[in-house]
Amino acid sequence: MRLPAGRGWWRGRALAAWVPGAAGPAPPPPLPGPPGARALDRLYSSAARQEKVDMSRFPAENIRNFSIIAHVDHGKSTLADRLLELTGTIDKTKNNKQVLDKLQVERERGITVKAQTASLFYNREGKEYLLNLIDTPGHVDFSYEVSRSLSACQGVLLVVDANEGIQAQTVANFFLAFEAQLSVIPVINKIDLKNADPERVVKQIEKVFDIPSDECIKISAKLGTNVESVLQAVIERIPPPKVHRNSPLRALVFDSTFDQYRGVIANVALFDGVVAKGDKIVSAHTQKTYEVNEVGVLNPNEQPTHKLYAGQVGYLIAGMKDVTEAQIGDTLYLHKQPVEPLPGFKSAKPMVFAGMYPVDQSEYNNLKSAIEKLTLNDSSVTVHRDSSLALGAGWRLGFLGLLHMEVFNQRLEQEYNASVILTTPTVPYKAVLSSAKLIKEYREKEITIINPAQFPEKSKVSEYLEPVVLGTIITPDEYTGKIMMLCQARRAVQKNMVFIDQNRVMLKYLLPLNEIVVDFYDSLKSLSSGYASFDYEDAGYQTAELVKMDILLNGNFVEELVTIVHKDKAHTVGKAICERLKDSLPRQLFEIAIQAAIGSRIIARETVKAYRKNVLAKCYGGDITRKMKLLKRQAEGKKKLRKIGNIEVPKDAFIKVLKTQTDK
Amino acid sequence: MALPRARAGAWAAAAKAAQRRRRVEGAGGSPSPAAPSQRAALYVHWPYCEKRCSYCNFNKYIPRDVDEAAMRSCLVTEAQTLLRLSGVRRVESVFFGGGTPSLASPHTVAAVLEAVAQTAHLPADSEVTLEVNPTSAPASRLAAFGAAGVNRLSIGLQSLEDAELQLLGRTHSASDALQTLAEARGLFPGRVSVDLMLGLPAQQVRPWLRQLEELLRRCDDHVSLYQLSLERGTALFSRVQRGALPAPDPELAAEMYQEGRAALREAGFRQYEVSNFARNGALSTHNWTYWQCGQYIGVGPGAHGRFVPQGAGGLAREARIQTLEPDNWMKEVKLFGHGTRKRSSLGELELLEEVLAMGLRTDVGITHQHWQQFEPQLTLGDVFGASEAVRALLEQGLLLLDHRGLRCSWEGLAVLDSLLLTLLPRLQEAWQQKTPAPVPGG
C-alpha cells in the first residue's frame, strides 16, 4: 500500500498532514475512495481500510535490518529513494526526491532530522526478503538517536561522495557503526559527476576505515546506476538478526512520534518474541503498562499487520499519550513476562541551552503553542519557562546540539511562522561543591549550572567543570595552519592528525563545547573556503577555570547580561559585550559607563557620552507635522524602555547583545 | 494678470519709509491690535532653482524654462483665495522662500504683496523677507526687490570656504557671498540675515570657528546657524552612504554649535531660538510667529500652513499642505483658486503639543500668558510641576519652570529633542486626566 505522502506525513502528521497546502510532491494516491475520505480514515484506525499483512511468512533469516549513513549531501536520501523504487515500495516517478525527508528544513539543508523507516519487500532467487531500511538522523547532534537506530540494525551502507571523499561526518558515522559491530558496506556515490574520483575515495576508505578496496560499491543513486548491486550486497553481506521468536517479547523503541488522534506511535525493533493487537506491554523505563491497539510495518507509511515477529521492525500504538512515554532506547516487554532491558538506554541530555522569546509579547501564546506542538514529536528538547526583564516571558530550551537548535528554530519559523529572539547559546557547566551548607541545600556534591544566576562562588566550590567534545576536522592540507590557529584560539587540544590521502588531513581535537556553540563552524567554513568539514562527539567534562562576569551600567547590575566565562576568555567576551552595548545604547542626557566586572574587578569598560546636541536645526517652511510625529513616536517608544538605574535601555540593545550572532 | 505698477509701488514706498522706523523689541514685538485669529504670517514658496544643491531635499525643481507670468498669476490667486478662506484681517509678515525666490522677478514679488495688501491689511512696516542666493542677486536686482516691497533679506551664504561650497553644490564662491552680503547691508541696513552651516563631512571645529569669526566681522544683525542634516534622496546622502565621503561627526557638530553659540553671545547676539541669533533687536517676526504657534498661511507649491478657515465657517485650526509639483499645483489653482492638497484638523492636544515643542525652541520659552492663550484650564505648573521626570530635568539644570514660565536653560536648548521626550508624554497624561471643559454657553 502506498500513501500519498504529504510533506508533513511523518513528523508533522498531527499538524499538517492533510492540509492541502502542506502536501509536497507525492505519488498518485492508490487508495480507494475519494481523497476527501482520507481525513476520516485518519481519524479512525488505518486498519479499517485495508487487508492486514501476515508477517509470519518472514522468518528472521529472510530479514535484513540496515541503515544508510553519510555526510551531509552525499546522497543518502537519494539512495533511499532508489531502493524504495527498486523494491516497488514507491512508484518510480520523477517526483521521488528525498521521499524520507519530509520536513522543509530537511530538504533545504540536505539533512535528515528525524529517522525514517521503511520495510521493503524484495524477491530474490525465489526467496522473499524483508529489508528494513532504518533511516537515521544525519548529524551527530542526534548521535544518541543514531546509535539507537543502529542498534536495531545488523549492517550499514556507508555512502561517500565520489567527488568530496570522506568527510568529518562520514568518520563519526563510521565509528558509531563500527562500535556497534555492524557490517559496513561502503557505497561510493555520484560516480556520474564530472570531477568524480572514485578510486581516490576507495583508497581513503581503505586507509581510514581499513576496508578492502574490493568491498566498495560504486554507484550513481541519481541515475540509478548499479543500485541493484547494493540490494544484493545488503542480502549477502549483512547478517540476519539473531533473535528468538519463541522467547518472551523484547522490543526496542528506536523512535517515536505523536499523532493527535492516535497518540504516540512508537517505532520498534523486535529482538525476541511476538507482539499483536490486544497484548499488554510494559515500558522498562517507566514501568507503565499499556494495551496494544495496533501493530504494523512502515513502507514508509503505516501499514497494519496481524503481528510483528522477532527480527522485524515496525510500529506500535498502545495508548501512550506523550512521547516521553516512549523514550528512544526504552525496552518494551509483555506484562508479567519481564525481560532484561536492552543495553544503552539514556535519557536525552541537552548540551546546548538558549533562551527563546517572542519578538513581541503579544505573540507569547502563539509561540507557546508552536513550541508545544514541535516538542510533541521531539522529546529531546527540554523546555523550561523563563522570563527576562528585558525580553519578557519566554523559555529556556535545551537542545542536543547546535544543529538541533537551529533546526528547531527554523521549523518554528517555517512551519509555524513564529519569529523569535534566540539568545546566545550556553552550555551546562558543573560545579563540585566544597561548602557543606551548599551540598546540603542541593542534596548533591556536583551540580549542573544552567542559569548563570545560580553560579556558586569560588570559595564554596572545589572545582568547576565544563563540557568538552572530541571534534573531527577533515580538510585539504593547505588550510591546516589556519585551522590549527583557530582551534588554539578556542582552547582546543590536538589529539591526532593524519593524512587520509595525499592532500587531505584529518585532525582530532578536544574542544570545550562552549567554544564551538556560537560560531566555530562558520569560522572554520570561511577560513577553509567551505572545504573543511567538522563533526564532534560528546567527550564528558573537564576542569575549567570559570568565572561569573557581571555587566554594569553606571554601577547598576544588568541581570540579563550575567555570563559565565572561562577566565582566559573573560576579557575578550567582556569587551565584546561592552562594545555591542556601546553601539546599541542610545545617548542619554548624561554619560553612561558600561563595565564588565568579575567580582569587584573591572575588566572592560566603554563609555557612551552624554548628548551634547539633540535638537533639529530647522523646522523648514513650517513643516512641523513630520517633526511632531517623529517626536511622539520616540516618546511612545521611550515608555517601553527598561530602566536600569536611571538609564533607559531599549529592548534592541539587549537583543543585540544577547541574540545569537557571529563575532567579528 | 496685469498689476498696476503704480499701486504696487505705492505700497512698497510706504513700506520703505516704515522700514527705518521699525524694530522688533523683545519677544513678539508690540501686541497687535487684531485678535490672534484675525492675524497671520504669510509664506510664499518659489519652487525653482538653477541647480540642485547636494544637501537639499526641499520641494524644488530645476526647470528648463519657467512660465513666470503663469506662476505669478497663480501665486496671486492662491494668496487671495487662502486669505479670504482664513478670514485673516491683518498680515503681519511675508516670507518669500524656496527654491530660490531671488530668481523670481521683483515684479512677481510686488504682485503678490499688492494682492495681499488688497485682500487684507498689510501694514507698511510688516516684515517682508526674501531668501537670496548670492549668485542670483547683483546689487541692482536687490534694489529692485527693495522697490517691490522687500525689506529684509536672508542670504544663503552657508560657508566661507570655497571647497565646502563646492561640496554643498552651491553655485557661488565665498567672495560672491561676501560681496552680496556687503551690497545687501548697504541696501537693507540692519535687515540682513545670513545662514551658516555646521557639521559638514570632514569639517573641523577650529577652521569652522575661523569662518564664523570672519562672518562676524562682515555680518549684519542676524545670523542663523544650521547643522547639516543628511537627508535621504540627496546627492550628499548617497555619497556618504557609498563611503565616498566621511559621515558628519555629531560630536564635532555639537562642539561647533556650542563654540558658535558662545562666540555669537560674545559678539553681542541674543540666541532667541535654537538656530537663530540677533542683535539690536533684529529678530525675525515671521519665524517668531512659527515658534509662538501663530497662524500662518502657506502659498505656492508644497507650502505648509496652519490656520482656522474662518472664512468657510471653520472653528478648528487646520494643518494644510499645498500640492507639491508646480505644474499640478498651477492646474489646481486655475481650477479651484487654490492648490491645497491636504488639510487636517489639529486637535486641542495636538495644538498644545506644538505650542510646547515650538515654544521651547525660543529663549523666552513658554510664558504663562502665552500658555494660557492656548490652554486656559491647566497651568504649566499643573502639567509639569508634579512630574518626577520633569523634576529630574529641572534639577539637572536643563529646564526652568518659574514665575515667567517654562523654558530651556542654555545647556537644555541644545538637547531640546531629548527633553521633549519627557515633556510630551507628561502633557498627554495631564490632558487625559483633565476634567472635560464646560461647553461654552451650554
TrEMBL record, chain A:
> Is Nucleotide-binding among the key words of this record?
yes
Source superkingdom: Eukaryota
Q: Which CDD domains match?
A: EF4_II, EF4_III, LepA, lepA_C
Q: Which InterPro entries match?
A: EF-4, EFG_III/V, EFG_V-like, EFTu-like_2, G_TR_CS, LepA_C_sf, LepA_CTD, LepA_IV
* Name of the protein this chain belongs to: Tr-type G domain-containing protein
Instruction: Quote the record's binding site residues for GTP.
Output: 70-77, 135-139, 189-192
| The entry's keywords | GTP-binding, Hydrolase, Membrane, Mitochondrion, Mitochondrion inner membrane, Nucleotide-binding, Protein biosynthesis
Q: Where in the cell is it found?
A: Mitochondrion inner membrane
| Protein role | Promotes mitochondrial protein synthesis. May act as a fidelity factor of the translation reaction, by catalyzing a one-codon backward translocation of tRNAs on improperly translocated ribosomes. Binds to mitochondrial ribosomes in a GTP-dependent manner.
Q: Name one Pfam family in it.
A: GTP_EFTU_D2
Query: What's the catalysed reaction?
Result: GTP + H2O = GDP + phosphate + H(+)
Q: Which Gene3D superfamilies match?
A: 3.30.70.240, Elongation factor 4, C-terminal domain, Elongation Factor G (Translational Gtpase), domain 3, P-loop containing nucleotide triphosphate hydrolases, Translation factors
| UniProt keyword Cell wall biogenesis/degradation present | no
Q: Which residues form the Tr-type G domain?
A: 61-242
Q: What is its main location?
A: mitochondrion
Family, as annotated: Belongs to the GTP-binding elongation factor family. LepA subfamily.
UniProt topology in membrane: Peripheral membrane protein
UniProtKB/TrEMBL annotation, chain B:
Q: To which protein family does this belong?
A: Belongs to the anaerobic coproporphyrinogen-III oxidase family. HemW subfamily.
- What does the UniProt keyword field contain? 4Fe-4S, Chaperone, Heme, Iron, Iron-sulfur, Metal-binding, Mitochondrion, S-adenosyl-L-methionine, Transit peptide
- Read off the InterPro entries from this record: Aldolase_TIM (IPR013785), Coproporphyrinogen-III_oxidase (IPR034505), Elp3/MiaA/NifB-like_rSAM (IPR006638), HemN_C (IPR010723), HemW-like (IPR004559), rSAM (IPR007197), rSAM_sf (IPR058240)
Summarize the protein's role. May be a heme chaperone, appears to bind heme. Homologous bacterial proteins do not have oxygen-independent coproporphyrinogen-III oxidase activity. Binds 1 [4Fe-4S] cluster. The cluster is coordinated with 3 cysteines and an exchangeable S-adenosyl-L-methionine.
Q: Which SUPFAM superfamilies match?
A: Radical SAM enzymes
Supply the name of the protein.
Answer: Radical S-adenosyl methionine domain-containing protein
What is the organism of origin for this protein?
A: Pipistrellus nathusii
Q: Which residues form the Radical SAM core domain?
A: 34-270
Query: Which is one Pfam family of this protein?
Result: Radical_SAM
Q: Where found? A: Mitochondrion
